[in-house]
Amino acid sequence: MRIELQKRQAASGVFSYLSPFLALALTLIAGAIMFSLLGKNPATALYTYFIEPLTDPWSRDQIIVKATPLALIAIGLAVCFRSGNWNIGAEGQYLIGGMIGATLPVLFHEWQSPLLLPLMMAMGMAGGALYAFIPAILKSRFGTNEILTSLMLVYIAQQIVDWVVRGPWRDPKGMGFPGTKSFNSSGILPDLFKHSDAHYGAVFAILTAVIIWFMLSKTLKGFEISVLGQSPRAGRFAGFSAKQMTVFAFLTSGALAGLAGIAEVSGSVEKLDDKLSLGYGFTAIIVAFLGRLNPLGILAAAFILALSYIGGEAAQISMGISDRATRVFQGLLLFFVLACDTLIHYRIRITSSLKGKT
Amino acid sequence: MDVWVSIIISICAASTPLLLAATGELVVERSGVLNLGVEGMMVMGAVAGFSVAQLTGNPYLGALAAIVVGALFSLIFAFLTLTLVANQVASGLALTILGLGLSGMIGESFVGRPGIKMQPIDIPILSDLPVVGKLVFGQDLLFYSSIFIVVAVAYFLFKTRAGLMLRSVGDSHSSAHALGINVIKIRYLAVMFGGACAGLAGAHLSLVYVPQWVEGMTAGRGWIALALVVFASWRPWRLLIGAYLFGAVTIAQFHAQAIGVPIPAQFLTSLPYLATIVVLVLIARNRRLTMINTPAALGQPFVPDR
Amino acid sequence: MKKTLFALAASTAVMLSGQAFADSHSKTKACFIYIGPTGDFGWTYQHDQGRKAIKAKFGDKVETAYLENVPESAEAQRPIEAFARSGCSIIFTTSFNYMDPTNKAAGKYPDVKFEHATGFKREHKNVSTYSSKFYQGRYVQGQIAAKMSKTGVAGYIASFPIPEVVRGINAFTLGAQSVNPDFKLKVVWVSTWFDPPKEADAAKALIDQGVDIITQHTDSTAAMQVAAERGIKAFGQASDMIKFGPKTQLTSIIDDWAPYYVSRVKAVMDGTWEQSDVWHGMAEGNVVMAPYTNMPDDVAAMATKTAAAIKAGSFEPFTGPITKQDGSEWLKAGAKAEIGTLLGMNFYVKGVDDKLPN
Predict the structure, then answer these.
(1) Do B98 and A358 touch (CB under 8 A)?
(2) Backbone phi, then psi, for C46, in 5-degree steps?
(3) Long-range contacts made by residues A137-141, C-beta under 8 angstroms, separation at least 24?
(4) Residues A31-69, buried b or exposed e (16+ Cβ, 10 A)?
């Protein structure tokens, strides 16, 4: 008995759509088993995780808050991954973007102006892009593995931000605690609706999704990204430069991660402190894959992952399920997404080993 | 003199988990597979080692459990990438995320319990020698294992036929397949070996370093191990040097603070990661070196055509 | 007819609200936001002991709930609000950086009582703050250290340079100097509250540098374990760590939150809860010293005497003459430190062999 893969002649359209749903279904089943093993009622647990947060307006609001940075970062990652560039350092770009974007409100604390917010967002994007430029140039000039460089830069970014909020940018009235002064009102990203915690970052996410979707599917650049990602050789014949694409992809991804960073700093935290790093840059990788590297799919995927976070908290409160279960869920989800994706390109056949050794 | 011995021993302790995990990953990558799930396998090994040691009272059984758990956990990755031909980068990440979450769940009831420490060995006369005694003859079993494994891997890769087969699979899996070598089977075994080593590295953390279980106690060491493999350009002896260099940098930051060297603590904490990047660039700049040593088929999916 | 209906409706309404009133008093819910795991055997463990004391004291009349590992940032706001929405009558947020989220939530849920540990902002009437004078215990420890040390140097593993930690370092130094004016203190900053391998490394480095007493302001038992291995005497932190160093622990500062928690919950049940700002110490039973072990009887006797004097209020560690590290005079002979200075402490006293980061 052996599992054999037979490459399909063309990628299966059916499974392209079905795969994420199949993955979700499998995750839910695995999750149900996990909950039973933990001694909790699986139906109640799944309900608390995935349905309950949808029923309450406050929870729905919180889901949007949580999904916004995930979506922004993941869209950028989609551009990178599609082109064959593995940006694992989005967390670092998110942090540096948040820090650079906060420069004006921190250094010119009293300055109020309608210009402040747009400047902050622009600087945030620039900061993230610049930080992403480092692994990009290292890869294109020196051939250095971008996975490792971008990852190491995450740890360095965390230290830089930590130093900045404890040292030069620390609020002198903050009693020695790390963190800048709270931004004045013109430096705070406004809320979407009254009484909402969701800020305009959500609008950025939706706009970005549409723009990038358009770029990927309707423009020459998008074609270039696709070709270089699937076959660098073919891309070379077509006259596309893989090196330039690396830089482009990383700059785009870095800019979006930086935007997510400054949006969070400005809209949610309203100052820069040492607690900005929450792992969104890594969770966004799951979101990107779950959304099949498609910006519109990513919006849905970000929503689902955010839902699992919020639901996880509700489950902690009402059922005593620990927060680690949420992480296991996410890992399982990515695992099943990857497994189900195989079905798109390959047919699975179970054969009996009639032949001898390969 | 005693102080220096003590410092070197603490460097050994910091370097051993890195060396163990990196050696395993070196073998995996030499077979052409890039497994980014080292952090996840390491932390699973840590929790397995700790919990079994707690339940049985024997840290050596714990280490054994860590090896088994690491190898089994790596099977998930192997199945995804070798049988289902999924994307290796994403699969490795999935393994890490799953490992961190799962280990947190398993270890929940063990947080805060004093661990059972694997004691350093004690050879009657040799361990009492001045200077050399404790350093060479008085460390724990995992330290000796790490050195042994590196030597064994070096021998295996370059002096045995099986090692040659493994390297050929990593350099060109299609050619190896044409020659009748079972590429998939070799890669499965390599991945499991990597998992076992990573698991053992994790056990070192929870059984020797600080006999405790803390969620996420690997704290990025798995990623440093990955960087070390590249740093060593996939050669075992360079790996040994690299691992000890990093261990030294980790320890140095605290000594620098204690002495009063006026460098911001954050800079000292960043040093290992900065050093990794610098080294990665230096290695990559020397193209010939990279090209000779990089397993050419690294990270590429392989599906046997019939 | 209308009048009767109206009367009926009104009386029903009163009855129902009376019922609700009675219901809300029949089951008070005390909820806790923890920064770490309850099994950390340090800070969070002690808070959880306080929660258990509430359950023990009030039995069925009180329900309790808790959330572990809540990030110390704006992220905390959601779980705090989730608690408020799930029927908690009083919410304890047990770490400094929950300050802003706690106050924001308090504004949105005026009927819920909030208790913030170690903070100073009380922006709404339903927020109280509370803390403990841990530094009193540090003074006693300093005295013991000076008596027990042969090298005259102790090692201090510090987390973050915030006033609470600096206070502890200063108090320890002053206590040591009262026994040995030339006593020195080496400080290592680990930039974390809880990271056993890092704390272990710091301890090893300090011991290799020649200290023979170890103390910490971090939350794990790693340093105690390392010290025990090397035969170095050490002080535990937040809870009694004797299990981890049976032959080497001298004493430990135990944070006993039970008296305060019980009294606050009782106030909620009786309807007498009012906003307060409380800084209790040995006198009120918040700071307790673990049994004095592994030391000669005369040292234990000295420590007991000092602790008793602090508890009785006849002695206060920060009493002049005290010189700052830069040589300037801080307190004249007999003068007591002002609370404000203590709360925002950002300077060392003479004798601390370290430069404050920032």
Answers:
(1) no
(2) -65, -40
(3) A137/A247, A138/B277, A138/B280, A138/B281, A138/B284, A139/A85, A139/A246, A140/A243, A140/A244, A140/A246, A140/A247
(4) bbebbeeeebebeebbebbbebbeeeebbbbbbbbbbbb
Element (H, E) at B212: none
| Cα–chain center distance at B154 | 15
Which helix or strand (DSSP H or E) is residue C252 part of?
strand C249-255
Give the nearest partner residue to A269 out of C68, C73, C163, using CB atoms.
C73
Handedness of CA B90, B96, B99, B103 (dihedral sign): negative
Closest CA to A232 of A334, A143, A339: A143
Q: Between chains, do A156 and B97 touch, taking CB under 8 Å as contact?
A: no
Count how many residues are written for chain A.
Answer: 358
**SS3 state at C289:** strand
- Cα gap A356→A354, rounded to integer Å: 7
Is B255 an 8 Å CB contact of chain C? yes
Report how far residue C216's alpha carbon sits from residue B72's, in angstroms, rounded to the nearest whole number: 39
**Which residues fall within 8 angstroms of residue B194, CB to CB, at 6 or more apart?**
B24, B25, B27, B28, B35, B38, B41, B74
Nearest C-alpha of chain A: how many angstroms from C31? 10
Query: Which two tokens mark C343?
Result: 């709360």
Strand partners, A349: A4
Please report the residues numbered 82 through 121 in chain A whose beta carbons come closer than 8 angstroms to any beta carbon of chain C: none
Give CA angle at C34 (C30, C38), nearest 5°: 100
CA-CA distance, A281 to A275, in Å (whole number)? 14
CA angle A215, A220, A225 (to 5 degrees): 75
Q: Measured between CB atoms, does A265 come within 8 Å of chain C?
A: no
This model of the complex carries an ipTM of 0.82
For residues A51 and A67, give the distance between their C-alpha atoms in angstroms, rounded to a whole number. Answer: 16
Q: Is A332 on the interface with B (CB under 8 A)?
A: yes
Cβ-based neighbour number of residue C351 at 10 Å: 18
Query: What integer pLDDT is reported at residue C19 of this predicted model?
Result: 38
Angle of CA points B275, B277, B282, to nearest 5°: 95
Phi, psi of C33 (to 5 degrees): -105, 115
CA–CA separation, A33 vs A41, rounded Å? 10
Range list of β-strands (E), A152-307: none
In tens digits, chain A (358 residues) has pLDDT values of 667 777 777 777 777 778 888 888 999 999 899 888 888 888 888 888 888 889 888 888 889 989 999 999 999 999 999 998 999 999 999 999 999 999 988 888 888 888 888 999 999 999 999 999 999 998 888 887 788 788 888 888 988 898 888 788 888 776 666 788 888 877 788 887 776 778 888 889 999 999 999 999 999 999 999 888 888 888 888 888 889 999 999 999 999 999 999 998 888 888 888 778 778 888 898 899 888 899 999 999 999 999 988 888 888 888 878 778 888 888 888 889 888 888 777 777 777 655 544 4
Distance CA C235, CA C248 (A): 9
- CA C238/CA C216 separation, integer angstroms: 10
- Cβ proximity of A261 and A158 under 8 Å: no
Q: Which two tokens stand for residue C170?
A: 């200063």
**DSSP secondary structure code for residue A317 in this structure:** H
The CB density around residue B207, as the number of other CB atoms within 10 Å, is 30
Is the Cβ–Cβ distance between C202 and B11 less than 8 Å? no
CB pairs under 8 A between A and C: 66
d(CA A239, CA A242): 9
By the 8 A CB rule, do C259 and C285 touch?
Answer: yes
- The reply to whether residue C191 touches residue B265, judged by beta carbons under 8 angstroms, is yes
A329 CA to centre of own chain = 16
